[in-house]
# Entry
Amino acid sequence: MIHWNSFSEFLAMGGYGLYVWGSFGVTALIMAIEPIMVARNRKATIARLRRQLRAESRNAAE
Amino acid sequence: MAVVGRDLKLAMRRQADIVSALFFFVIVVSLFPLGIGPEPDLLRKLAPGVLWVAALLATMLSLPRLFADDYRDGTLEQLALAPHPLGLVVTGKVIAHWLVSGLPLALIAPVLGIQFDLAADALVVLTGAIVIGTPALSGIGAIGAALTLGLRGGGVLLSLLVLPLYIPVLIFGAGAVDATVTGLGGEGHLSLLAALTFASLGFAPWASAAALKIALE
Amino acid sequence: MTDRFNLYRYAAPSAFYPLAGAMIPYFAAVAVVFGLAGLWLGMLVAPTDFQQGEGYRIIFIHVPASWMSMFIYLVMAFWAAIGLAFNTRLSGMMAQALAPTGALMAFLSLWTGALWGKPMWGTWWVWDARLTSELILLFLYIGYMALVAAIDDQRRADKAGGLLLLVGVVNIPIIYFSVKWWNTLHQGASVSLTKSPSMASTMLWGMLLMAMCFWMYSIAVALMRVRTIMLERERHTDWVKAELASLGAGGEK
# Structure
């Protein structure tokens, strides 16, 4: 079923290892970092908006 | 058309702008041999691309002014409210813009082409290509100018939006001269260039008008 | 009649926000499943290519990324058209949410294309029609994001960005058909809706599964992003204020 005879063959990719893993590596990096960035942005936005709301309600109360 | 005449008159009052865009063209083109080295074969090969890129950049310089002055003094709003379709008004402005930016470039380009040791037939094709292609640059540029009206970072943002859209014009314009130099003949490129110009002049004024309406709201 | 009316109610940000939040985990899970299946088939099972050796396996990233870069742009243009025609707010938010993912897909397409081209044809880059138009696509994404970021008034940003997207949409058929019109470096289509494909079935299925993975991933990320955009743009509404209050100081999910 599995095409490869050994793990080192799998890594070597018939000599094309640099290019294949360079591609898959960058893809994995992007697909890990992008959601993390979106999540962090969400947290930061929520924190900022909450601060603004508190400041506005304080101003309104005065 | 009244719009063309009016814009030309206004442009004539600002002759310095037109001339400085032309000088920019000349200077940019002249920088390349200084940077690349004087070898004639290399320069001849690079000439079409260099001349066209410089023409693109020189056109970009004058684009923000297309609508900005009228926007500032309120004329643009009046034009938008007038009974004539805004698209026709934009067409007039684009034509006027081409007359004071694209056409002068086409007239100077062969002189600069001699600097690069281009053959006579290549110079003819170069001039023709610039004449045919620059109206497309004015038209497509109008869309960018309308979209970025009144925005901070205007000129740079305008370039960022418009230069990708200019790439087909660049490819066919420079390609026509290249093909002439290598002996293949530039007719194919020139006809595609003409098609691009017709298409953009047909389409761009209406897109620009829509963008102007968005900017004026 | 009542069914269609119910669907339209999700055009309101207040209704779409919780719906999007509920859908994200499912899309993410499906993306992982497709990804694992695609990688299993493509990287572990599929045979060596006769002409290109093992290097062809980049196809399992390159083709899905290219397809998504074009597809996302088309979806953004679709939302732009809806927004311009019906003056809806959510469509503009969706377009802005999709843009960064689409740009990353275009970048990935160019990056993997270069890594594929170098060992196969000896060059990182060539100015053929398809590569050039994909590069233009990346520029269009960046231009859209720059334009939208430069406009403070969100309604104008939506509309101006939308118009820019529609002007640039002509680039997509150029990318797609360029391999047919100009016979240059990039290979012709191996997968077509009408003819039977010209590659081994494990390769084909690996590629399709990875394409599905990328699609589900893009939807999940875009839904995440649009929720943040909604909170920002609708911050003066009651539902957002209630949501912000309920999220607590930690900014929890």
